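User: I want to check something. If I give you two sequences, will you return the structure for each one separately, not as a complex?

Assistant: Yes, each is folded on its own. Here is the first sequence with its structure:
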Amino acid sequence: MKARYEMFAGYNAWCNERLYAAAAQLSDGDYRADRGAYFKSVHGTLNHLLVGDRVLLRRFTGEGEMPASLDAILFDDFAELREARRTEDRRITRYVSALTDRDFATPLRYRTVVKPATIEQELAPALDHFFNHQTHHRGQAHCLLTAIMGDAPSFDLIVYQRETGVGALRTIG
């Protein structure tokens, strides 16, 4: 099970590098324009991805910053946001690498943000949500990039697996 989450941590960092490389090509106006997405713009969506990771990693570890809201703009400057993203991705990788197989069945108790309630859940399904949340919002960013640029890099897991050899992927014949 640990190898699966290590794969997702690596995939997450790989996707984010591709996402930020594409976003770096945008004009500031296109990057910040409200395009009707849930977090309005590419800028808002990238900030939310970092917000979500910080909220969830704090639940898992009890450490790290707790953003004031889910739509917080943590960094207005793109370069600073990109560096914070890389730092957070390294933090995710370190966290997952330190887990033991036993940890995945350990109950986790936390308070929700939007509609405060106390939740208890095993770590494995909470990690599933963590990585799925990232994929969901990167998909929104991908849609925005495609609408602005006409194209965006692939974030498909299979592309990551083919490029890295992670995930027991083999070409036969």
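And separately, the second sequence with its own structure:
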Amino acid sequence: MGEPSAHNTAAGPTRRDFLSTAGRTATAAAAASLSGTLLSGRSTPRVHAAGSDEIRVALIGCGGRGGGAAADALSVPGAPLKVVAMADVFADRVKIVKRSLTEQFKERIDVPDEDPLVGLEAYRQAVDCLRPGDIAIFATPPAFRAVHFAHAIEKGVHSFM
């Protein structure tokens, strides 16, 4: 018998085989879609939350990780994001992160100054500010995220944790 080959078919497909096939399939599908678009002279239709280009974002958990995640999201060129709600257990954390984000992304922060969303139930109010298809960034301790995620699912909101 010879040396075992890199792709041992007796043991079934490897993870490398799977990823290679999946990559080729995704590339072929994208190419087919693009060529159909180019041949027809149409552009691929864009799909946005609630028929608008604006995607609303709620930040739940305004510590360093939350502020960094929101800044990273807002830094994506051309992304039509606007932060509309910020929630945390501590009011000073909301104020600090809001001030920092407003300095960097003034036109993309639309969080009211009055009545900050503070407390253990503030995540509900933040998620309730969103429409289906918008984004909730959960930067809270992992022990709280299951409850937060369940509420986001009920509301049809995308989640980043």
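Because they were folded independently, the notes below concern the second chain alone. Confidence is low (pLDDT under 50) at residues 33-50. The beta strands are 55-60, 81-88, 117-118, 135-138, 158-160.
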